Amino acid sequence: MSGHPDSGLLPNARLIARREYVEKIRSRAFAVATAILMAVAVGAALVPIGLRALDREQTTRIGVTSPSAGVTGRVIDLVSQYLNPMPPGADPATVRPHYILRSEPNLATGLVDVDAGRLDSVLEVSIGSTGALDFTFHGNDGPTSATIQRLQVATFGAAVVEYSQNLQGSGGPAFHVPSFVLQPTDLGSSVAPVDPAVAGSRTLLASILVVLIFITLTVYGMWVATSVASEKASRVMELLISAGTPRQLLVGKVVGVGAAGLTQYLAILLPATLVLALQDPLATALIGPADPGEAPLIGLTLPILLAFGAFFVLGFLLYAFVYAAAGSLVSRPEDIQQLAMPLSFVSMAGYFAAIFGMTAINSRVVEVLSFVPFFSPYVMLARVMLGHVDAWEIALSLGLLVAAIGASMWIAARIYGAGVLLYGQRPGFRTFLRVAIRPGGG
Amino acid sequence: MLDRMTLVIDRLSKRYGDVVALDEVGFSVAPGEIFGFLGANGAGKTTTMRIVLDILRADSGTVTWRGRPSTELPRRTFGYLPEERGLYPRMRVLDQLVFFAGLYGVPQLEARRDALDWLERFRVTDLAGRRADELSKGNQQKIQFIAAVLHDPEVVLMDEPFTGLDPVNVALLRAAFLELAARGRTLIFSTHQMEVVESLAASIAIIDHGRLVTGGSTREVRRRAGRPVVRLAVDGDVELAWAVDLPGVRASRRSADVTELTVSPGTDPQSILHAALARGAVVTCFEIADASLEDVFIELVGRPSTSAPAASRQAVEPAA
Question: CA–CA separation, A322 vs A342, rounded Å?
Fold first, then answer.
């Protein structure tokens, strides 16, 4: 409906956004939901500390085997010293070690013990012709587990000590960097083929953020749809549509609900982020200082927060316009579910693509999906956190997302302009398509 | 030249699928006029109003106001009172009025002041701080009317503004109508209450099944389309059976003291008086009047203005 001199976006979109925002955040339901989610988020932020505390309670038993009893003994001494650091001033007799290493006659007996549950894993030491050591780890710990990361450091240390002891005068063999191979004992258990350079906590964080985006896009999208539908149900819509253009109403609605969503978001995330940022001091206060080599708790960085913010806001805009169009087609808020279902399938597809994509983050499929507008908020976010992404890829993905937002706004305004005057229609995906194609038709 | 000053609705047509909602409907409304837009439910009144407001596009035909197409006019030119009343249920009345006026570009303070003025005029200042869902139907309707006129539009379109109001509020609303018209505002309203139209509207249009049936000044329409009516009362004779037996005369309405008789075009109304006097009756009331609008409506449309809507149109346009 162009042509009216007052059909510009402002000031009406701003008025509508402000009304929407004020009504939303004043409502009791909003306050209750925010308070509950805030508590949940702070709780979730404390989980890694709890996990670390639990981890400390456990004792990991590792069998060590090598062709030489002397080498086995020295490796056990060195590695267990490293794995079980003594807190300053503690009495060695009272401290329970987290790792117990014991000698195994050979790999076969060790693996039998692992099967029987007497051992958690076996560290196989092989000795090269020059006396250089190499290590194979038989166990189920993934490459990103704290145990493996610390074992890698400890075995390297053991190799250095062994090398220096074998050194006689000058002219000995050059130092051989020991290899460290992971050999899963139980093929049934999954060991994620993630680049070990990426910290394991990143995967956890990425999953959390992708889940967060999924939940909030769906919930806030439904806010938009419900708000439009209830304006229709209360018939206030007829006044609105004669005072403003569909575009003003739509943009105002989406921005107002989005701002309310963002407010809730910040109310939830700020305390949780604070807990995360202060995690190390908090952990120290609650469960004592970090052991050397203990995995960092969480890898939240500024670029990740920025990427998350950008994909959340743009993803919301994209979905919100479609939700608004859906809301404009139903006569009662109760009917929204029928139209929202196909939408949530799209959203879910992106979500699952991101979650499963995390195990193959650099694959072509994931790469392609990370540019597809309805999926990119999930998939590109996962790639940014876990894979290798060039700056131009992020820019392209964001650019496509913005273009898609423009297109969805245009289509939504068409549907909305016709939909808000339709009553008694059977809400369904076909109505949606028909009105999108020919808004004026009956 | 007159067209450049008026609201001209020119040959509007609109179909919803197979249903013809409007079929070349056209009429014009002079500035400062109160205009009655009549039709049964489903006749196409709401569709016409929506097209004038440009919230619906006609398949063909145009609407111009003072020579400019309605699609190019600022939205604040028009005020609208939809038939289906709707306010934000949980928003306070005053906030609500200021919000809607704001959408039409009225600054907040001005809107607040004018809204309080209107509330005072309708004797409901105490409603300013109440939530809309706490209001009675009649009060909601008054608020809705204020929302339609608060931005002082040049043309106000009102769908059934009098429905559901008690006599006191009908009187208040009529006074507001007359005052707005005196200030040069153009008012177009639809209603089923023909007495209201007769006493308020200078001109009318009647549509049925999407077609214009008649239009023009109210007096002219009554005279042109209807048969004259004789109101007769005779002392001690309520039945007036003899009068109904006269050729070309039939009783159209009986009340406690007066009987309304419809006279066919070829019959002289005076003949009834002659007949009465010839019988030696004591005539206490004899009046020759134009047909009532209700009679005109029934004559032209074939059913009362309050009759049920055409079923087929309900699904697409229940508010018509």
Answer: 11
DSSP A208-224: HHHHHHHHHHHHHHHHH
What is the Cα–Cα distance from B217 to B225, expressed in whole angstroms? 12
Q: Which residues of A touch B62 (CB under 8 A)?
A: none
pLDDT at A442 over 60: no
Task: Determine whether the interchain pair B78/A242 forms a contact, defined as Cβ–Cβ distance below 8 Å.
Answer: yes
Judged by a CB distance cut-off of 8 A, whether residue B18 touches chain A is: yes
Per-residue pLDDT tens over the stretch B248-258: 888 877 777 88
The least confident of A33-42, A400-409, B74-83 is A33-42
- On chain A, the residues whose CB falls within 8 A of the CB of B131 are none
Chain A neighbors of B108, CB-CB under 8 A:
none
Q: How is domain B227-289 classified at the architecture level of CATH?
A: 2-Layer Sandwich (3.30)
Which tokens belong to B280?
A: 């030696």
Beta partners for residue A347, in sequence order? none
B16 DSSP β-pair partners? B19
CA distance B68 to chain A (A): 11
Residues A286 and A176 in one domain: no
For residue A436, count CB atoms less than 10 angstroms from its CB and return exposed for 0-12, middle for 13-18, buried for 19 or more.
Answer: middle
Are B222 and B296 within 8 A, CB to CB? yes
Contacts of A245 in chain B (CB under 8 A): 75
Question: In the predicted model, is pLDDT for residue B272 greater than 90?
Answer: no
pTM of the model: 0.73
* Structural domain boundaries, residue A261: 12-52+199-437
Same domain? For A257 and A385 the reply is yes
Contact between A372 and A315 under an 8 Å Cβ cutoff? The reply is no
When divided into structural domains, chain A yields a total of 2
- This model of the complex carries an ipTM of 0.80
Locate tokens 């060590």: which residue? A64
Phi, psi torsion values for A61, nearest 5 degrees:
-105, 125
Residue among B55, B56, B159, B188 with most chain A CBs within 10 A, to mutate: B55
Chain-chain contact of B102 with A23 (C-beta, under 8 angstroms) = no
Q: What is the per-residue pLDDT across B130-168, written as a single tens digit (0 to 9) for each?
A: 999 999 988 999 999 999 999 999 999 999 999 888 999
Check whether the bond before B89 is cis (ω within 30° of 0): no
